[in-house]
């Protein structure tokens, strides 16, 4: 039960802080800035890995959970409960933002700024790069050690910095689900659910191709 609570709390914190940076930037007429938003996402991911990495693996992302399961680094029976906890945490995070900023229409919802098909490819690639780092700094789906938090948080910051203005740089179905459902802007939600999952699975396939046999596998119980 503790690992499920960790995933819920972590996902809540990710949405509240990351999307909260977007909301407060709008509220303050740009004082936070795009770079500040990107840095907030990177830092909160890094902090959450250090806080919960040894408890739940610090996924906070259905795409990561599914990819770990596909890589046989995470038991498939745990996947539905993890995803439920992540999505519930994201919804609660967005709901808290709505409570604090009812005047904000989007609550940090990820929306395409260019053609949908280009955003889909963008999100696939962003999640591909992120998962490639995650799976190479983790051990049996547990993200531990000093370098794991820095590496993963750094990639999140980097990708949010350059891709955020174009796609929202979601890389995370739960992160997009919460604000979209609470704000009512669900028209592009399918994109931000499917693209990260495709990208994360492609990263696992690539890992298997470029490293030793069974490099991405470990015993799951």
Please tell me about this protein's structure:
The protein has 221 residues and is an all-alpha fold. Helices cover 71% and strands 0% of the residues. It has eight helices and no strands. The two termini are 16 Å apart. 50% of the residues are buried. The model has no long low-confidence stretch (mean pLDDT 93).
Keywords:
221 residues, mainly alpha
How do you describe this structure in short?
The chain is mainly α. Helices cover about 70% and strands about 0% of the residues. The two termini are about 15 Å apart.
Helix content: over 70%
| Beta-strand content | under 5%
The outline comes out as globular
How many β-strand runs?
A: 0
Q: What integer is the average pLDDT?
A: 93
Query: Spans with pLDDT under 50 lasting ≥5 residues?
Result: none
Order of helices and strands: HHHHHHHH
Task: Please report the number of helical segments.
Answer: 8
Rg, Å, rounded: 16 Å
User: Structural class of the secondary structure composition?
Assistant: mainly alpha
Sheet with most strands:
none
From the N-terminal CA to the C-terminal CA, the straight-line distance is 16 Å
């Amino acid at each position: 039960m503790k690992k499920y609570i960790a995933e819920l709390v972590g996902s809540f914190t990710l949405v509240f802080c990351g999307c909260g940076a977007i909301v407060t930037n709008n509220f303050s007429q740009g004082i936070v800035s795009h770079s500040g938003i990107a840095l907030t996402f990177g830092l909160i991911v890094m902090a959450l890995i250090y806080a919960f990495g040894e408890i739940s693996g610090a996924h906070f992302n259905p795409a990561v959970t599914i990819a770990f399961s596909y890589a046989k680094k995470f038991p498939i029976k745990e996947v539905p409960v993890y995803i439920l906890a992540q999505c519930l945490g994201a919804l609660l995070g967005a709901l808290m933002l709505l409570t604090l900023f009812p005047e904000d229409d989007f609550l940090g919802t990820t929306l395409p700024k260019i053609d949908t098909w280009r955003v889909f490819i963008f999100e696939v690639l962003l999640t591909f790069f992120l998962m490639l780092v995650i799976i190479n700094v983790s051990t049996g789906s547990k993200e531990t050690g000093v370098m794991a938090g820095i590496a993963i948080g750094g990639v999140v910051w980097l990708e949010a910095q350059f891709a955020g203005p174009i796609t929202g740089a979601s890389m995370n179905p739960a992160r997009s689900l919460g604000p979209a459902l609470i704000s009512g802007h669900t028209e592009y939600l399918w994109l931000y659910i499917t693209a990260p999952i495709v990208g994360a699975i492609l990263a696992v396939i690539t890992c298997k191709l470029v490293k030793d046999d069974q490099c991405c596998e470990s015993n799951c119980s």
